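To assess whether the prediction recovers the assembly geometry, we first specified each molecular entity separately, as shown.
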Amino acid sequence: MTVAKIKTKVEQELADQFAHVSGKLPGDASVKGARQAAIDTFDAQGLPHRHIEEWKYTDLRAIVKEALPLNVGDASAITIADVIVALGPLQTIDAQRVVLVNGAYRKELSSTEAQSGVTITPLSEALARGPVTAKGFGAGEAAPADDAVLALNAAYMTDGAVVEVATGTEVERPIIIAHVRAGGEAGFTAARHVLRVGANATVTVVEAFVSLPGAAVAGQMNTASEVDVGDGAHVDHIKVAVDTGAVTHLASWIGRLGKDSAYHGYHHTQGVGLARNQMFVTFDGEGAEVDLSGSYLGRGKEHVDNTLVVDHAVPHGTSRELFKCVLDDNARGIFQGKVIVQQIAQKTDGKQMAQALMLSPDTEFDSKPELEIYADDVLCGHGSTVAELDEGLMFYCRARGIPEDQARSLLVQSFIGEAIEVVEHEQVRGAITAYAEQWLEERAARSS
Amino acid sequence: MLEIKNLHARIEEDKKEILKGINLTIPTGEVHAIMGPNGSGKSTLAYILAGRDDYEVTEGDILWNGESILEMNPEERAIAGVFLAFQYPMEIPGVAGLTFLRTAVNAVRKKRGKEEFTTPEFLKVVKGRAASLKINMEMLKRPVNVGFSGGEKKRSEILQMAMLEPTLCVLDETDSGLDIDALRIVADGVNALRGPDRAMCVITHYQRLLEYIVPDKVHVLAHGKIQKTGGKELAHELEKSGYAEFEAA
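The predicted structure of the complete assembly is given in tokenized form:
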């Protein structure tokens, strides 16, 4: 028996909007077919809600009240100087830039350099030739096929970056994919990036989510990144979401690791009204190493959910996760970490830690570590802590003449710094630290 | 001059009285040792001097250069010249030693009406003082005290002391956990800071430290009170006879 599902207003709007805009979306006939299949998947699921275990703490059906109009193409009068302002501390990174304004690739604002072995193509252009995915997905993929957020992305994606790094290529300067939100009209942006990194290649990719002064307070972002890490390759993938406002930010990362490869993913989130960072990583070759870590600074009524699924599908894999959140006012932090160790995945080494520092009594931190272990010769562990600032440490700092508010900032930096230290690229690490310092300065200014 | 007058104090949480009427004067320019058995209130006295709020002063007063410091918070006392070298220096992960030191030094200099150090000035001063304590700059680039040995932690305390230029130095069990070489380096560092403008209060259980930091006076603290005061030879007597006489009191 089929039960007719009652759609919420937003779910109906999302379906209706697709019917209106699908003709304008990039892609050949097969892409169009895939988009239709994706919206059908979304239609069958609806928005994720609290009765779905993975979405227990982030009930999108209750939170998302309206479907904003999709941003398709963009002609905002924006200069490179504007982009630099929007990038804040990230502007100090010596990097190549791929700039998307309201989800649309803007060549004249981007500055990529020619290097043999590296190609960067706008997704909109690539889709004209057919569907674009990172290779190797399918069997064993950790992302659920019916994930409604991913389905919405696949249906609506307008643009993004397709980055291909050839075997053995070392990409010297990091590639920043900058999402700039601009203009007074609140809209919905759907972007997708695909990173194909060949065997023994090395690359650092930074996804930045920023907004220009004067951008609408509200906004909706659905972004997905597929990452294929070739055998022996090393990928640093960092996301800095500092798009301040009543923004709903949904980000999905799907990664596949080849033999002896390394994938270091990092999420820094601050100032975003609601964020869900979901990461799905599959070990596809033996001896690979993954680090998924992140930092989150929350205040007001902000809500940030970091959810990850790591699938050890082969033996001799190493995974590390360290997530730290600092919660002030009524902010809420969520961490869900599922580590699956398949029966054949012997000698897996997995460690996970989630920690929250509460600066106000009205914050909430929900932590749900899950280990699903089917192999018997593994080393796996997880931990979770919630704490207030250590009084003994406060006294130590103050006894050195450091005023109370400055001592508090220093100790928050100490706490969050342990996560930020995971980021290998020094300038990227410095930029994230600078963002965290900004947050602390704003906090001190508010309380004085 | 430090004057402690009839100081009574208890633990805030359980109201247990630890100090039961301490009277003690340390003139500027002198080094006094406070010795005593475990649990006599030595560390409590050190914390109260530095302003830790886990303790409540119920009677008496502490005057530094004629002014009561009891109403001052820890940072105000630091600015007034009080420095406590901790028995167990704290670890601060994620904050480089140099950052911590510079934050503290400039906070204090600013409040004392001095120019804040620029980065080059600061580094120059630190380098010199660190070298005499056999601390290399690499160690200071690491997070504060994280992964340091007992000796490294104590040396880093003395470096902080030298950088903050206090006028009242309180050293709480600075010799604990030190081997003889480390003890010598630390003692040399402390002795270098001795001077006519500075008072020092050296708290220790053992006489050993006082061979290197020779005190002008020795006080025996037991049961929350100063039980006996004498010259440096008192430390030697205690080494022979132990604290039994006072513990029985």
